[in-house]
Amino acid sequence: MLSASTHNWLLSGHLIGVFLWVGGLFSTYWLLRIHAQAPKDVHEKLTLMERSLAMAMDLAAMLAIVCGVVMAVSKDVTHPTSNLFSYPHSGWFHAKLTLVVLGILPVHGIVRGRIAKFSRGQVTGIPQWLWSLLLAAICGIVILVIRRPF
């Protein structure tokens, strides 16, 4: 069972990771859109910027996921016999996980794949639907976290 102090540290790490991860996804997405339209002489600098930002994005994603998983599988301070997967009224949590897995992780993977393609000189446009998917997933997650439990 996590102490309240440990839980608060994990929650802080999770939120910091989420904010930096989403900020990195936003920034990298738009940087890739700019890169697709940029003149050839700036492609190398843009690729360097994209790779640097993506590394920070990866580290933030790891922090968010690790802290989130530890909180999810640990015994809750308020419900010492259960964790987020097992106690009643945790439907919001399962819906949140679904949005992360189906909304944010695919965008992360596609953005990382585009960075790799761009660094090999294969500069193509990045689809608009990625931005829409990312925004929809983030809005859904925020609503689920604020309006829980159901």
Account of the 3D structure:
This protein is mainly alpha-helical and 150 residues long. The protein has one domain (4-147). The protein is built from 4 helices and no strands. The mean pLDDT is 90.
Low-confidence stretches: none
Averaged pLDDT: 90
Number of folding domains? 1
Net shape: elongated
Classify the oligomer: single chain
**Proportion in helices:** over 70%
The Rg value, from CA coordinates, equals 18 Å
- Strand percent estimate: under 5%
**Number of DSSP helical runs:** 4
The largest pleated sheet is described as: none
Structural class: mainly alpha
Query: How are helices and strands ordered from N to C?
Result: HHHH
- The total beta strand count reads 0
Distance between the termini: 24 Å
Brief account:
The chain is an all-alpha fold. It has 4 helices and no strands.
Topology at a glance:
Elements: H1 4-37, H2 43-73, H3 91-119, H4 128-147
Helix pairs in contact: 1-2, 1-3, 2-3, 3-4
Descriptors for this entry?
76% helix; elongated; mainly alpha; 150 residues; 4 helices; single chain
